[in-house]
Specification:
- The chain has 25 helices and 23 strands.
- By secondary structure, the protein is an alpha/beta fold.
- Strand 15, helix 17 and strand 16 form a beta-alpha-beta unit.
- Helix 18 runs antiparallel to helix 19, helix 18 crosses helix 20 and helix 19 runs antiparallel to helix 20.
Length: about 675
Amino acid sequence: MKHDIKMNSGLRVYLRWPAILGALLIVMNIVSYTFHVACGIVVSIFVVLYFIITFLLYQRYRKNIVRDLILFGSGYAQIQKQLLQEMLVPYGVIDDTGRILWMNDQFQEIVGQDGRKHKHLASVFGEITQDKLRFKEESALFHSVFQERNYRVSIIRVTLNDIVDSLFIGEKADQKVSMFAVYLFDETEELRYQREVEDERLVAGLIYLDNYEEALDSIEEVRRSLLLALIDRKVNKYISSYDGILKKIEKDKYFIVLKQRHLADMQKNHFSLLEDVKTVNIGNQMAVTLSIGLGAQGDSYIRNYEYARTAIDMALGRGGDQAVLKAGENITYYGGKTHTLEKNTRVKARVKAHALRELIESKEKVIIMGHQISDVDCIGAAIGVYRAAKTSGRRANIVANSVSSSVKPLMERFYSNPDYEEDLFINNEQALERMDSNTLLVVVDTNRPSYTECPELLRKARNVVVLDHHRQTRDVIDNAVLSYVEPYASSACEMVAEILQYYSDDLKIKSIDADAIYAGIVIDTNNFMNKTGVRTFEAAAFLRRNGADVTRVRKLFRDDMMDYKAKAEAVKNAEVFETHYAISVCPSETSDNPTVIGAQTANELLGIRGIKASFVLTDFNGKIYISARSIDEVNVQVIMERLGGGGHMSVAGAQLPDMGVEEAKKKLKDTIVEMMDKKDI
C-alpha cells in the first residue's frame, strides 16, 4: 500500500502562513468596501491575483520543498548514524526477544567477530534473558560479567508506535512494536578500586581471656608469669601474621586493629587462635580459653569499635571460647564448641542482686514474664523474683497465658494458698493494662523478644530487667536497664537462687517458693545430670535450707500413663542418622504436653550407647518444636541456631513455623550434613 509522508506539524503551520495572510487580505478587502466601492473592487482584484499566484507557486514548488526536506533529513540521519557508529560508549539495539538488531563499533569490539557470533544479548550476558526484558519501567539496570570484565548494562525501552503513527497516513500499525536501546559501561576498574578501598578499611577488635583467674590459680605461682608470656606470644603471633596491631589494655584484655581484607582468611580458618591458645600447657590443670569480638563495615572508626564491644559482649554472653564478627547489622559466630566454664566467684551475682533490689524499690509494681508455654524453670524463676519484690513491699504479678500440663500441678499449689494473691498469675491483656511508667518488667528464662509470653509488653515497658541462662543470639532484648545472662548456669532458677541469697537480709523464702525454684533446677538439669556445677549444688543446698522438699518435688512431676506411653513410642521409633545422631518424632495427639515429652525423650535417647546427640520433633500449635540434647561431644546449640533457635551446648531447641514434620526432619538432616562437611560440629 502506497502512503504519503506526513509533514512535521511545525513545518505544516509554517507553509500555511500564506493562507493565513490571505484571510487578512479578505478582511481588509471587506473593510475597504465600506469606505469606497471602487477602491474595494481594485483590492478584490489584487486579492484574487494573490491567491492564484500563491496556489500556483505552492503546486510548483511543493515537491521541491518535500525533496529538500527529505535530503536534509537523510543527510542529518547519516550524520547521526555516523556519530552513533563511532560513539565511544558501546551502544546497540535489540528487539523484545533479546535479538541484537544493530550495534556500534565499540559494542562490536566488546562482543568480537563483528557481532556475528552473538546474535542474542543473552549469549553475551547470560543473566539478561528474555524474561528479564519484560520489566514494567522505562529502563532497567543490570550488572554482568563477560570475558572477565564487569559491565553495567543499561537498557531503555523504545516504543515505536508513536513514530510509526507519525510517519504514515491511513492505516496504523495494529501490533505494538518495542525495541530496546542497550548501553554498556565497563565498571571493572571501578569495582576493583572499590574492593581495594573496602579491603583497606580498618577493623576494630577486642580479645578477652575467659578464665584468666581460674587458669592462674590452677598452677603454682612461679609458673604464672611464664603462662602469661606464652599466651601473649600466641596472641601477638596470630595478630602479626595478619599485619595487625595489638595493644594490651588490661591484664586479660587486648585491643586489636587490622585490615578488612584479612577477615576472609580468619573466617576460613575459623579463627584458629581459639584452638591454638588452648595448647598452652605448662602444668595448668585448666586450659586457657579466650573470646574475640570484631567490628567491621561501620561508617567510622568509633562505630567499628562500638560493634566490637557489642560483639565481645555477645561472645561472653554466649559462654566465651568463641569469636563474634559484627559487620554492620550482620552477626556471625565462630567456635563455642567447648563447655562453658563455671565461675567460682559470686561477686557478679551479688552486684546484680543489689542492682535488682534498687530497681524494684524504685518502682511501685513489678510484672514478671517468661517465655511462651512456660516450663518449670520459667515459673520457678518467676516465683523467686516475686518473692524478692514482696520482700521490698512491692506488688508483683506473673504473666502466664499458656503453660504446659506438667507445670499446672505446681501452679495449683499457689492458686489454693491463701498466702498468695488471687491474681498472682495474669494474662497478656491484664499485664498490658497494668503496665505504666512506674512498673518494672522482669523477663526470666529467655533473652529473645520473640520468645517472650507477650512481646508487646516489652515495647510498652520503660524499665526492663533480663535474667537468663541461655546463650545470646542476634535477636536479643536490647532495651534492658539490667541484663544478667550467664550461660554457665544450669537454669534460671539457679541464678535466681543466688540472687536471693544476696538480695536482702530480711528476705524469707517460703517452703512453697523453695519447692518451685528447686523444681526448676531439677528439671533443667535432668536430676542434676546435665550442666551441673558446684554452684548448682550450692543453690540447691540454699533452697533445701529454706524448706524445699525433694519428695514433694518428685511427686509434682511424675508422668501420667499416656505421657509415659508417648515417650516410649518416640524412643521406639527413633532412627539413627549418620551413625551418632538419634532423630525421632514425638506424638502430639496422645498428650496435653507434647513439647515436654519431646524434651524428656531427647534426654532418654542420650542413654543409648554411641549416640552423641538426640533430636526430637513435635508438631504442636502449628509449629514444629525441636528438642536437642547432647552430652559433651556435639554442640547442639550451634545446630539449633542454624534453624533459628538457640540454647546451650548440651541443651537447645528451635521452633519451625509453617512446616510439616517430614520437611522439618529433612531440614534438620541437611543442616547436620552441611555442618559436618564444614567441620562446624
